[in-house]
Structures are given as C-alpha cells and as structure tokens.
Amino acid sequence: MRAEPGCFSGLRVWHLTTGEAGTRQQARGLASALSPSAEERIVKVSRLWALAPPALIAPAPPAVTPVTGRLEPPWPDILVTCGRRSALVAMAIRRRNPSPMLCVHIQQPPHPAAFDLVVAMPHDRLEGPNIIQVDTALHAITPDTLRAAVGDAPWFRGLPRPWTGVLLGGSTKRHPFGIEDAARLADQLDGLRQDLGGSLLITPSRRTPPAVLALLGARYLSDQTVRIWDGGGPNPYVGILAMADSLVATSDSISMTSEALATNARVYVFHLQGGRRHEYFIANLMAKGLVTPLDARATRRPRAAIDATPIAAEAVLRLLAGRPAPLRSW
C-alpha cells in the first residue's frame, strides 16, 4: 500500500541546513513533499564545535547559532537535514526533544546510525537498514511546477524550435570553469545544433564565472537563435526546464542535472573536471542510459522523467506508518 501525505496531516516538519544553496534545495524539496507548511531553519555551526564529539554539541550558542527560525520547542515531528554540520545539529535536537521525532538526513552524515532514514546516492557508498539509495539529488521541481511554467513568456518568443536549454554551473573549490572550457562548450553546442537545429536558451547560475558568460556572449552576439539570460527580469530557469526539447547541464552541478532529469527532455552532460562525487554521479547516470555526453551524437529516443524526491518522501511516510506510537501533532 502506498503511503500518502494526507494520512499524516497536522505534522510539524522542519528542514534544517547551514544555508548552502544545494543543501537548502534538497532539504526543502523533501520537506515540502511531506508537508506544504514545512518550516525552514538555517543555522551556523561553529567550526571548532563541529570537531567536538557529537554528544557535547547543544543546539544553542556558542556551538550553534540560529540564522533563520528558532531552535526551541515545539520541536518538529519530522526533522529533515542535509549536509554534515546540520546532521550534528539534528543529533543535538533529538537529545533535547523528549517526544518521538523522525530524523531524516540527505547525503552522508557523520553518524548514519543516528538517523531513522538516510537518503544517499551511489557515490556516498552507504549501506544499511536505514539507508535508501537514489540516483539523483532531491529538489522541489514537481510536475505541477513544470506545468505552471509553460506559457508564452517574452524571453522565449520568436525562437525557432526545437529548443535546447543550457544550464550552466560554475567553478568548484578545486576545479575552475575557465574560458577554454567555455569555448569547448560552445563548439559542442554548435555540433549538437547541427544535428538538431533550433535555438539555444542559456541560463547561468550564481557560480558561473563572468569570463565564461563574456565568451559565450561574444560567440553568439549576432546569432538571433541564441538567448543568454543576463540576470535582468524573471529568471527563465524553470521555464527552460518546462519547455525545452533538450537540456544540457554542466557536470559540476548535481542539482541542475537532477532537475533536468525530472522533465521529459533529452539530457546531455557537458564534462567539466570535477571531484570523485561528481564523476561517480555522472558515470552512474550514463551507465543507466539517463544522460548522454554532449560530444556524442544527438539522441532522439524518448525518456521518462525521473525524480528521487517522491521516492524519499514515500520512504519517510512508510516509516511513520510503521511506528508503534503515533507522533504528536500541533
């Protein structure tokens, strides 16, 4: 029997992170799937205290400083966290909370056994009775979100089909996204358009280096079938996801690649040098035929949307359904 959110109405759900965009997005996506009234908590964890034994950490200064929302009763029925330091805060809250509370962590926590459920990807290399493995990152891009973004937006108007959306990531701590990469990206995009035709709809992220945008802007300055979002006006990102026939994501962004796969568009990946996590993530998707390298020939085979967020939400609800005592509601 499938567990449904309506079976557990009235639950208090928190999603707690240390504020990084990627972790916030994943925690919010799962929490929102569990409750439309989920509450966000953002905290700052002292680097010194983060090195201390978890049992010594309290969800209060000087170890933990609330940035958004308060860390005090009434405590949540379900606490969703993402990121290593937020896992330490979850463990501290559980020690303070005398009532039953389901603790769910996304990514690899320092102490997996301390959580009722850990949502991990293959590159996390976690196994255990409380671990579920998913192929993509969690997010809040739902079918309803995509349907709502379909429309006659001015930014898209007049562009010949098919549309290829290009989702640009950026530099990571150890691997820059340089102008040589940008030139290689443009060459591969032009090769894709020779196969597919149509238009390019390019949108950067906050991590995209200005030099990369400058090179792409100069390359396509006189091409009326290429649009590059310059940061002015509404962000076309969700519209691109909803309406593009094909999507290209840079391999440094696990989140954008995962959101692209939540659509029915064909997904291509442009390879940027990255760490083990990124390489393993993309390799797993390629092995399963979910993405195609951008420098390969274009594919026209249909693809079903995949989204790990409902899978994780259902796992949480099944845990709730199997608890011996009902959770309190507020």
Short summary of the structure?
With 330 residues, the chain is an alpha/beta fold. The chain contains ten helices and 13 strands.
Could you characterize the architecture of this molecule?
With about 325 residues, the protein is α/β, with parallel strands linked by helices. It has two domains: about 5-140 and about 310-320, Rossmann fold; about 145-305, Rossmann fold. About 30% of the residues lie in helices and about 20% in strands. The strands form two sheets. Strands 3-2-1-4-5-6-7 form a seven-stranded mixed sheet, with helices on both faces. It has a six-stranded parallel sheet with strand order 10-9-8-11-12-13, with helices on both faces. Strand 11 (about 245-250), helix 8 (about 255-260) and strand 12 form a beta-alpha-beta unit. Helix 4 (about 145-150) crosses helix 7 and helix 5 (about 180-195) packs across helix 6 (about 210-220). It starts with 12 loop residues before the first strand and ends in a 9-residue tail after the last helix. The relative contact order is 0.15.
